[in-house]
Amino acid sequence: MISKVGVIGAGSMGTAVAQSISRRVGEVIVFGRRQEIVDSINTDNCNKRYFPGLRLNPNIHARLMGDRQGLADCEAVIIAVPSSEVRFIVNATHDELTGKFLVTVAKGLEYPSLKTMSEIIRDETGNPDIACFSGPTFADEVAYGHIAGATIGAGGDPSLRATISNLFGEFILDFSDDIRAVELCGVLKNVYAIGTGMWDSVYGNHNEHYTFLNMCYKEMCIFLRAISRDKGIFTKFCCFGDFNLTANVDKSRNRTLGLMVGKKIVKTPYLESGVTFEGSRSVKGIIELAENHSIDMPIARFVYDVLSGNNNVRESVDGVIRKAP
Ligand SMILES: NC(=O)C1=CN([C@@H]2O[C@H](COP(=O)(O)OP(=O)(O)OC[C@H]3O[C@@H](n4cnc5c(N)ncnc54)[C@H](OP(=O)(O)O)[C@@H]3O)[C@@H](O)[C@H]2O)C=CC1
Ligand SMILES: O=C(CO)COP(=O)(O)O
Question: Does the keyword Ligase apply (predicted)?
Fold first, then answer.
């Protein structure tokens, strides 16, 4: 039984996962890069920057990212930073992470390598046991203990699954041994959340919304059918559940980005906002990955065109309707 778990990333998802897991293990150590967050967690049992109203469980402690011994003492480590940071951070903590049980919750695709997070982590650590966690899991709702489902992407080793099931025992879990496919679901759903936000910024009726949603899900399933070994992936939490959560709910940062870009409230510097918009970083890679499999993704291309400022939603959307699968 794992007793000490590390969480790299003291943001919304890192804090939320720490709160959930802390009810199932002896201690959770959250590693952050801001001293004031580390202090607020250790002094006030609260991450004042991300969840100012949430009292964290007393067995959650925080350390600065550089605390190598603190990380070395953890038996399992969860990586909860934006996908753009994963390679740098895992490379920098290679010695402490090698040989450990690692789980990534990050939803992104490295460019131009087109590697998923678990593939990056394996590159950097050589660990055989790397799992991913992905599903309809808004961090704030996880942090406050609401029911959530998630897919665990992991190898078929029964002891590995038992370990994961215990760590994430507060979630309703399904499993897949196609880790890459699970992670790509999380990448795709962010792209379609932006796309649905863009569409809804122009077409506000119910019929229009669900027509476009269906077009997105169809394009996503065509891609997954081509790349996934897990033929049941389509009904798993990482796919149908997370796709619908983020495409339909304004709480989604990706959907909100689509709405704001569609309404011309923001232009491309939004990446400097400091908000984690994973879909905008991964859309180009997902298009290239699809092309490598001779798959056309008109909706993903629509998202990329509008995000790039090449076109606005109205100019681009006719192409989508004509070409969408
Ligand atoms: N939020 C959610 O609802 C969910 C998020 N996820 C995924 O989790 C991942 C993390 O996102 P999320 O927690 O939402 O993002 P947030 O923006 O809420 O937090 C990101 C955290 O990463 C830290 N960070 C960023 N760069 C570095 C770095 N170079 N070194 C150390 N720490 C760093 C930030 O530090 P600082 O505070 O100093 O900026 C912050 O603590 C994403 O891939 C996301 O898709 C998955 C499911 C749900
Ligand atoms: O992945 C998430 C919920 O499962 C969070 O979505 P956003 O990054 O769009 O906020």
Answer: no
Nearest to 17 by CA among 240, 175, 171, 179: 171
Q: Which protein residue's CA is at the shortest distance from atom 8 of ligand 2? A: 253
Q: How far apart, in Å, are the Cα atoms of 5 and each of 54, 148, 163, 209, 302?
A: 20, 21, 12, 42, 41
What is the mean pLDDT of the segment spanning 173-178? 96
Same domain, yes or no: 140 and 35: yes
Instruction: Tell me the average pLDDT across 178-203.
Output: 97
Please indicate if the annotation marks 70 as binding a ligand: no
ipTM of the predicted structure?
A: 0.98
CB distance 5 to 31 below 8 Å: no
pLDDT for the residue numbered 271: 63
Averaged confidence pLDDT in the chain: 94
Other Cβ atoms closer than 10 A to 193 = 30
Is 232 annotated as ligand-binding? no
Give the 3-state secondary structure percentages of the chain, helix then strand then coil, rounded to 5.
55, 15, 35
pLDDT in tens, 4-34: 999 999 999 999 999 999 999 999 999 999 9
User: Domain of 41?
Assistant: 4-177
Residues in the chain: 325
Cα of 315 to ligand 1 centre, how many Å?
A: 34
Amino acid present at 213? L
Q: Are strands 60-64 and 27-32 parallel, antiparallel or unpaired?
A: parallel
Residue carrying the six token digits 């897919």: 151
Ligand 2 center to residue 321 CA distance, Å?
A: 26
pLDDT of residue 159: 84
Measuring from atom 11 of ligand 1, which residue has the nearest CA?
A: 82
Q: 114 and 188: one domain?
A: no
| Residues 151 and 210 grouped into a single domain | no
Answer yes or no: is pLDDT of 269 > 60.
no
H/E stretch holding 105 = none
